[in-house]
Amino acid sequence: MSSNPLLFRIAFGSIAVSLIVLGLKLLAFWMTGSVALYSDALESIINVVTAFAALGALWFSYQPADQNHPYGHHKAEYLSAVLEGVLIVLAAISILHQAYLGFLDPRPLNAPWQGLTVNLVATTINAFWALLLIRTGRKHRSPALTADGGHLMTDVVTSAGVFVGLVGAIVFDMPLLDPILAGFVAINIIWMGWKLMRESVGGLMDEAVPPVTLDAIKSIIATEAEGAIEAHDIRTRQAGRATFVDFHLVVAGDMTVSFAHDICDRIERALKGKIEDITVTIHVEPEDKAKHQGIVVL
């Protein structure tokens, strides 16, 4: 399977963007001494690590099938998303520790407005890039890029919450809000990490295609299997951007192998024309194996 240059350009871009955003957030933390901004900067360190992991997983997933991996390497992208979820949880633990220390000894912020301005610039960059990653990842069915974009979007939401909260802390002279906000950021990060790991584990466990995709597959089989009797025991699974389908096709007992093979080829061509990166396996059976269920051929 040939690689997609666009996905690799996006993955390289994520590394550059994450480094820029990390630099800006560290600058904001250095200027203010805010525990909440420290938590924001720490999450950006994870963004850098996961951007590298996403690039590596993307490259590995496009390696051709080999003797040890005859079905390809598509699931490598899920491993990147699992790693990202684990790192997110570890970062949240560190943030909770800092929030606890800040709660015991709250301190006023230094140069608060300048620091918040720098952090707002970083958040804006993150928002733009997160939307690009999510849109590209979903379009090309890349779990690594989609997970990376989802992480960044959560980072944007928490950064916006930190910004609003710190403005309130400055205006109302309530330094205790700083560590409290950091605690909320940590809880939100833990929830996001759990969701990422849950979705990634689902991919590793061979979850079926979405119902709308399954309906499209059944419709194509029913339309293109002219000459057969029925199709049953349809199974699907997803592995990153790849989709796998297998089913039993019942034909007349006196049908020639050549004619049955032509029907299978027609179904396979139609499925590949509709669904990108699909692998189809069809088991042909004689009519006495019919179950009188599944797909009745039109």
Describe the structure.
This protein has helices spanning 5-32, 35-61, 76-104, 112-139, 143-171, 177-204, 211-224, 257-274, and strands at 230-239, 242-251, 278-286, 295-296. By secondary structure, it is of the alpha+beta class. A four-stranded mixed sheet has the order 3-2-1-4, with helices on one face. Strand 2 (242-251), helix 8 and strand 3 (278-286) form a beta-alpha-beta unit. The longest helix has 29 residues, at 76-104. The radius of gyration is 25 Å and the shape is elongated.
Instruction: Please estimate the helix content.
Output: 55-70%
What's the CATH class label of the largest domain?
Answer: Mainly Alpha
Strand content: 5-15%
Order of strands, widest sheet: 3-2-1-4
Radius of gyration: 25 Å
Overall average residue pLDDT: 81
Tell me which oligomeric state these chains represent.
Answer: single chain
CATH homologous superfamily assignment of the largest domain: Cation efflux protein transmembrane domain
Task: Indicate the structural class.
Answer: alpha+beta
Total tally of structural domains: 2
- Note poorly predicted spans: none
Overall geometric form: elongated
The largest pleated sheet is described as: 4 strands, mixed
Number of continuous helical runs: 8
Distance between the termini: 33 Å
Number of strands: 4
SSE string, helices as H and strands as E: HHHHHHHEEHEE
